[in-house]
Specification:
Blueprint lengths: L1 E4 L5 E7 L4 E5 L13 H4 L4 E5 L16 H14 L5 E6 L1 H12 L4 E7 L8 H17 L2 H11 L2 H6 L1 H12 L3 H12 L5 H5 L5 E6 L7 H4 L7 E6 L6 H4 L1 H15 L1
Parallel strand pairs: 3-4, 3-5, 5-6, 6-7, 7-8
Antiparallel strand pairs: 1-2, 2-4
Helix pairs in contact: 2-3, 4-8, 5-7
The protein binds D-malate.
The site of D-malate has 6 residues, from loops.
Length: 263
C-alpha cells in the first residue's frame, strides 16, 4: 500500500497497480481496499487501478468531522490530482457508490464512467435515518464489533454464508478493523446524503448499475432506479451485497465490457 497526504490534510492509503486509463475502486461502509482483492488482478493487466481506503477506514486517517459523501468525493478528486490522473472511471460499492455519485455531481469533467455496485442513488428514508442514528449510538457505546456482527449476515447471500465461511470471515476481520470514529462519522455522512438519481441520469458518460438478486441491504429495484440510454443494468443471480468477494468472476465480465465502452 502507498499513501498520500492530501491538501485537506487527510492521509489516504491506496493501491496503485497496472498502467493505462484509470479505474478507481471504492469500497463500502466498514470495508477497505481489501474488498477488491480478487478484482484488482483481473483489471490491472489493462488499466491503472487505484484502490483507496476511504477516510475513516483501513489505514487512512480518521478526521473527526461528518464524512459527507461530497467530502469523500473531494478526497478522491485530490488523490487523483496528486497522482496526475485527469479522468477516471469510478466504480463504487454501496457507500463507495454513494461517494462515486457525489463525485459525478461535483467533478463531472474528471469522470470517464460511473459504476454503482450494490449501491443506490436514493437517499435514506426516515426509517433508514433512524437506523443510522441507532448504529452510531451502538458503535459509540460498544465499539464496532457488535455492529459488524449484526451487519455481516445481511451482506452475503445465504448460500455464501453457508458454504464460503472464509470469505465471510475476511469481511468480519475487515469490518472489525474499522476505527469506531470512522464508522460513526461515515454513518452520519450516509444519513445526510441527498438523492442523486437526476445527476446520474444526466451524465454524459457510460453508467453501469450492478445488483445482486439476493442483496438484503440494497434491493435490485433501488439499484436500478436511474433511467437513460447511457445506463446499463446487470443483475447477478447468486450475489448478495458483496459480488466482488462472493463471485468476482461474475462481476468482472460486465465490468470489463463497461470499461471498454468508457475508454
Ligand atoms: C455498505 O455496504 O456500504 C453499506 O451497507 C451501505 C449502507 O449501509 O447504506
Amino acid at each position: 500500500m502507498e499513501n498520500q497526504k492530501l491538501s485537506n490534510q487527510v492521509k489516504l492509503s491506496y493501491e496503485d497497480r497496472g498502467s493505462g486509463n484509470a479505474v478507481v475502486l471504492l469500497h463500502g461502509f466498514c470495508g477497505s481496499s481489501q474488498y477488491w482483492k480478487e478484482i484488482i488482478p483481473l483489471l490491472e493487466t489493462a488499466y491503472r487501478v487505484i484502490v483507496p481506503d476511504l477516510r475513516g477506514h483501513g489505514a487512512s486517517s480518521v478526521p473527526d468531522e461528518p464524512y459527507l459523501m461530497e467530502t469523500i468525493a473531494t478526497d478522491i478528486a485530490l488523490l487523483l490530482d496528486k497522482l496526475g490522473i485527469d479522468k477516471a472511471v469510478l466504480c463504487g460499492h454501496s457507500m463507495g457508490g454513494y461517494a462515486a455519485s457525489a463525485f459525478a455531481g461535483a467533478y463531472p469533467n474528471k469522470l470517464a464512467g460511473l459504476s454503482l455496485i450494490h449501491s443506490t442513488t436514493l437517499p435514506d428514508d426516515e426509517g433508514g435515518k433512524q437506523k443510522r442514528t441507532e448504529a452510531m449510538e451502538l458503535i459509540r457505546k460498544e465499539g464496532v464489533a457488535p455492529f459488524v456482527e449484526g451487519l455481516i449476515p445481511k451482506l452475503f447471500a445465504d448460500q455464501t454464508l453457508q458454504i464460503n465461511k472464509a470469505i465471510v470471515q475476511q469481511a468480519v476481520d475487515i469490518g472489525n478493523n474499522t476505527p469506531p470514529l470512522g464508522a460513526i462519522r461515515s454513518a452520519e455522512g450516509m444519513r445526510e446524503r441527498i438523492d442523486r438519481t437526476l445527476i446520474v441520469e444526466k451524465l454524459q458518460v457510460p453508467v453501469l448499475l450492478v445488483a445482486g438478486s439476493k442483496d438484503k441491504v440494497i434491493s435490485p429495484d433501488k439499484t436500478f432506479t436511474p433511467q437513460g440510454a447511457h445506463i446499463h443494468k446487470h443483475k447477478i443471480e447468486k450475489a448478495g451485497h458483496m459480488s466482488m468477494m462472493e463471485c468476482p468472476d461474475e462481476l468482472i465480465e460486465p465490468l470489463k465490457t463497461f470499461l471498454a465502452q468508457c475508454y
